[in-house]
Amino acid sequence: MKYKLGDFVRFVDEKMEGYVTRIIDEQMIGVTGDDDFEIPVLSNKVTFVHGRGEDSHNEEIVQEVKAPAGEFKSSGVHVAVVADAHANSLVHFYLVNKTSYQLLLTLTSEQNKQYKGEFAGMVEPQGIAKIYSAKLSDLQLWPKFTFRALFFTKQNQPALSPLDVNEQFKAKDFAGAKKTIPFIKQQGWMIRLDEPELIIDAEKLKESFFKPAEEKQEVQKPASEIDLHIEKLRDDHHFLGSSEILNIQVDRFKKALEAAIVHQMHEITFIHGAGNGILRHELHKLLAKNQKVQTFMDAQKEKFGYGATKVIIK
């Protein structure tokens, strides 16, 4: 298959063009045009567009940024997932190397006991490399990934153990707000691969069990009405993206509902506003799954319209 996800192609027999958004098999690909509809087509029925063809897609993006002299970083290996600039349904995986080590990286995918090498190459210190592409809507069908990396430097630094990480990405990995990806300055999700090992201090854990009740943190009783409008929750809301705002509002809702349950409140009202209904939908979805909630309904339509939800707690 000479085409890759993200290639810009033109149909041979029709006046249509678009981006490759799916590799169906060795003969078939899916092409998505300006109307956002994906059309399956034989790969020999399309061709690269001049100036945006095969040569422009063969090389992986690898960038290097020089670290300040004297500053050696031994940690910070991430995979970044970034939406394609032209075909929003596509995402590209980048290996972000924030360390001062040179990385020898391999990426292998596994699905139904079928293995495939996806990438092998060097990622320079303070550098980034494009290593994989996929369709975000096919997240449930993504294979399991194995990232392996060796760390190398000529400087007087200890030899690090090889990195060996297995990842099966899930929807929750992309539920948070997007961040600016280092080196390429695009918005995307960052997932750290070299997370430090969690070390449990047995003594501190033991102490926490035997702390006097008065030393333990108390859950404050929430007000009977909780306003979830973002301007009530954050002063810097003008600088927040829509997904980040939604996460903040949902987090406030969860904490207030949990506190209401702890204090055995009979009911609590959440003011979410009418708007486009996204926040209301998220709240109702969470309430429907909560075993401690007896029922919920629109609260006092004459007062709130459809902008508030009243929750009755068991």
Structure overview:
Helix content is 17%, strand content 36%. With 314 residues, it is of the alpha+beta class. The strands form four sheets. A six-stranded antiparallel sheet has the order 6-11-8-7-15-14, with no helix packed on it. Strands 4-3-2-1-5 form a five-stranded antiparallel sheet, with no helix packed on it. Helix 4 packs parallel to helix 5. The longest helix has 21 residues. The chain is globular.
Percentage of β-strand residues: 35-45%
Task: State the order of secondary-structure elements, H for helix, E for strand.
Answer: EEEEEHEEEEEEEEEEHEHHEHEHE
The order of strands across the largest sheet is: 6-11-8-7-15-14
Sheet having the most strands: 6 strands, antiparallel
Average pLDDT rating: 84
- Radius of gyration over alpha carbons? 25 Å
Shape: globular
* Number of helical elements: 6
Report a brief summary of the structure.
The protein has 314 residues and is an alpha+beta fold.
Features:
six-stranded antiparallel sheet, 36% strand, five-stranded antiparallel sheet, 314 residues, single chain, alpha+beta
Please render the helix and strand layout as text.
Elements: E1 8-11, E2 17-23, E3 28-32, E4 38-42, E5 46-48, H1 55-58, E6 62-64, E7 77-83, E8 90-97, E9 102-111, E10 114-123, E11 127-135, E12 144-152, E13 163-167, E14 179-180, E15 187-192, H2 202-209, E16 225-227, H3 230-233, H4 242-262, E17 267-271, H5 278-289, E18 293-298, H6 301-304, E19 308-313
Parallel strand pairs: 16-17
Antiparallel strand pairs: 1-2, 1-5, 2-3, 3-4, 6-11, 7-8, 7-15, 8-11, 9-10, 9-12, 12-13, 14-15, 17-19, 18-19
Helix pairs in contact: 4-5
